[in-house]
Amino acid sequence: MSARFLDDEARKTFESAIASIEATSAIEVVIAVRRQSAGHRHANLIVSVLAGFAALAAMLFSSHPFSLTAILVDPFIVALASGAIVELLPGVKRVLTPAGVRHHHVMRAARATFVERGIHDTIGRSGLLVYISWLEQQVVLVADRGVARSLPPDALASAETRLTAAMADGGAAVARTLAELGSELTRAMPRRADDLNELPDAIDSDLRRRR
Questions:
Q1: Where are the domains of the chain?
Q2: I need a surface site. Which of 2, 15, 157, 191 has the fewest CB within 10 A?
Q3: pTM value surpassing 0.85
């Protein structure tokens, strides 16, 4: 479940990764973790339609006699219930949504978060958002101009691929992978003596914490 992704170990590992990166580089790292970046209601609709037709077919071809009222109403009830259950099955939404569509939604949500959190407002334009979307199982990096100019052309895309691959092993694995990027970030934007910590280091998450 989503709560396990960002457990206490993962939180501590993310905090350590942020501290290690900001200790040696001028880059301001912000972590945002979201349960999902879009509703993906098409998945609910697909499952509802298929379940409704399956229920109707079962009633029409069953040897058990059903009343006309039951044939008319019951498939709709099955369809509605099936669509509602999809909300409890994030894996179904993931499977029924192409990777490209998922990435589009995650990227759009990440860019909105970048602006909402004021990550674009650092003195050296050195903000870097690590946006993690649990349902979509994707990580997107949104870098301010200073970071983007300092890194090699394909560095962000490569880092996104590595971070996304680590999601299957949990939040702590993503955090460790982020920490491994520290040396590359330091080479791109070394820390200066007058660097200030301009952005909050606390993890921005809407995942419920496990008790």
A1: 2-38+97-205, 41-95
A2: 157
A3: yes
